[in-house]
TrEMBL record:
<feature type="transmembrane region" description="Helical">
    <location>
        <begin position="22"/>
        <end position="43"/>
    </location>
</feature>
<dbReference type="InterPro" id="IPR032816">
    <property type="entry name" value="VTT_dom"/>
</dbReference>
<protein>
    <recommendedName>
        <fullName>VTT domain-containing protein</fullName>
    </recommendedName>
</protein>
<feature type="transmembrane region" description="Helical">
    <location>
        <begin position="115"/>
        <end position="137"/>
    </location>
</feature>
<keyword id="KW-1133">Transmembrane helix</keyword>
<feature type="transmembrane region" description="Helical">
    <location>
        <begin position="143"/>
        <end position="165"/>
    </location>
</feature>
<feature type="transmembrane region" description="Helical">
    <location>
        <begin position="63"/>
        <end position="86"/>
    </location>
</feature>
<feature type="domain" description="VTT">
    <location>
        <begin position="63"/>
        <end position="157"/>
    </location>
</feature>
<dbReference type="InterPro" id="IPR051311">
    <property type="entry name" value="DedA_domain"/>
</dbReference>
<dbReference type="Pfam" id="PF09335">
    <property type="entry name" value="VTT_dom"/>
</dbReference>
<keyword id="KW-0812">Transmembrane</keyword>
<keyword id="KW-0472">Membrane</keyword>
Amino acid sequence: MTESARPPAASMPSWFQHLAQLLALPEYGLTTVFVVAFVSATLLPMGSEPAVFGLIKLNPELFWPAVLVATAGNTLGGAVSWAMGLGTHRLVDRARGNSTELRALHWLERFGPKACLLSWLPVVGDPLCAVAGWLRFPFWPCLAYMAIGKFVRYLCMTAALLWFFPERLAL
């Protein structure tokens, strides 16, 4: 049977292996980590840790670049969520003709931008960035706290995964 006559499922493993090898190259791998980290920091439900861990397992010398690129992508994704929250607040205010306040969010106002340190948390972290924008917390302090929290997450999670899975992967 020729390659083109094969059913798609039969050619998938070689296609996937080629894609994995391509994305593991440092010039593509870091870009992939950035994009995955960026998208995962928006309200889309996905995680970027497998991409970071996979790249580092295939290219251990990229530990710090991968952690920093993932932090940058995830922080910028958080900034997009913040902007979406601010834009939503403005639209709701314009539609209602007055300022909007949600009682459930009053406790968050107590912490201010420092609450963005928790933006690394699963499930609640990404919406937290949007809520910070909704509450009109100052952008730059929020971004700085997001970056700190996300950097610590990537550093700790990647180091822990490398500790538990020290073998080098082979494709």
